Amino acid sequence: MMATPEKRVSTSLNARSIGVGKETIVLCHGFGTDQSIWHKVIPLLAESYTLVLFDWPFSGTVTDKSLYEHGKYTSYEPYADDLMSVIEEMNLKCVTFVGHSMSAMIGCIASIKKPHLFNNLILVTASPRYINTDDYIGGFERSSIDEMVSTIELQYENWCSTYAPIAVDPNDGDSVHKVMRCLKSMGGEVAVSLAKSVFYSDYREMVEKVETPCTIIQSSNDMAVPVGIGQYLEKKMKGVATLEIIDMIGHFPQLTAHLKLVELVKAVVGI
Predict the structure, then answer these.
(1) Residue of 34, 55, 172, 222 with catalytic role
(2) In a domain, 164, yes or no
(3) Containing domain of residue 135, as a range?
(4) Residue 147 lies in a domain
(5) Do 233 and 122 touch, CB atoms closer than 8 A?
(6) What domain of life does the native source organism fall in (predicted)?
(7) In the prediction, which pLDDT does 154 show?
């Protein structure tokens, strides 16, 4: 009996390509969402570039729920492996990687492992560590993260309804509801596991090894990532790094400041 061929990572993760531009941009979503979070920027970038999008295994849009193995995805490294698999399976080279939130650090890890795959990194509302230490302001005390994880575990639906307006801009109702729907479709069990991997992580030492040119895009008012984090990343990156701050509320510029985000991405990629 012949063995069933293994399904490609890119297929399992709903990878797709849009546009026919010479330069390729990989748009990578963050915690609790899926590739639809880029819906406002896609038509504006697809006019000039080839866009590649996919969903992480935790996303509610991924059909095969067995892909998200709790024992496997305890750090960002397995995600970086998935990212490199998608890029290689789709025969991409020298891409501009746009990573939102947790995906920014994932892109950094992948760029260290296989720098030839990346031309530029654009890190959107990125953070290498969320918990404060004596010499580092991540934005949260350990007790606050503990409480959040507990709430996700015990009252997930309520947490989604509370978190979305804070993480997005409460004045943008449509975007708040979009993020809330994505979170709820992910499910509480996955969310607990993912939250632990993200909010207890510490990738400060990794950041100092990144040589690929980086553009760091921060929100001026982000409850999850203080402006000082962008300044920290700009200082610590081994390669050339540039910080851009968007005057906005929230953690999702692709939803609430998409025109400015597109402008910054185009400035990096050129053409």
Answers:
(1) 222
(2) no
(3) 9-142+202-269
(4) no
(5) no
(6) Eukaryota
(7) 97
Residue 228 CB neighbours (<10 A): 13
Looking at the whole model, is its pTM more than 0.70? yes
Place of tokens 């490609």: 8
Q: What is the DSSP letter of 3?
A: P
CATH code for position 247 = 3.40.50.1820
DSSP state, residue 226: -
Ramachandran region of residue 84, left (φ > 0), alpha (ψ -120 to 50) or beta?
Answer: alpha
**220 close to 136: Cβ distance less than 8 angstroms:** no
228 falls within a domain = yes
- By the 8 A CB rule, do 29 and 2 touch? no
Kindly state whether residue 125 falls inside one of the protein's structural domains. Answer: yes
Residue owning tokens 């790094």:
241
The three-state secondary structure class of 227 is helix
pLDDT score, position 3:
44
What DSSP letter does each residue of 87-109 carry, written as one string? HHHTT--SEEEEEETHHHHHHHH
Strand partners, 133: 136
**Closest to 210 measured CA to CA, from 235, 240, 241, 238:** 238
pLDDT averages per 10-residue partition of the chain, 271 residues: 65 96 97 98 97 98 95 97 98 96 98 98 98 96 97 96 96 97 96 97 98 98 96 97 98 98 96 68
State the total domains in the chain: 1
Q: Is 169 helix (H, G, I), strand (E, B) or coil?
A: coil
* Beta bridge pairs of residue 26: 52, 97
Active site residue 101: yes
Q: What angle do CA 166, 167, 172 make, to 5 degrees?
A: 75
pLDDT value of residue 20: 87
Angle at 172 between CA 124 and CA 149, to 5 degrees: 60
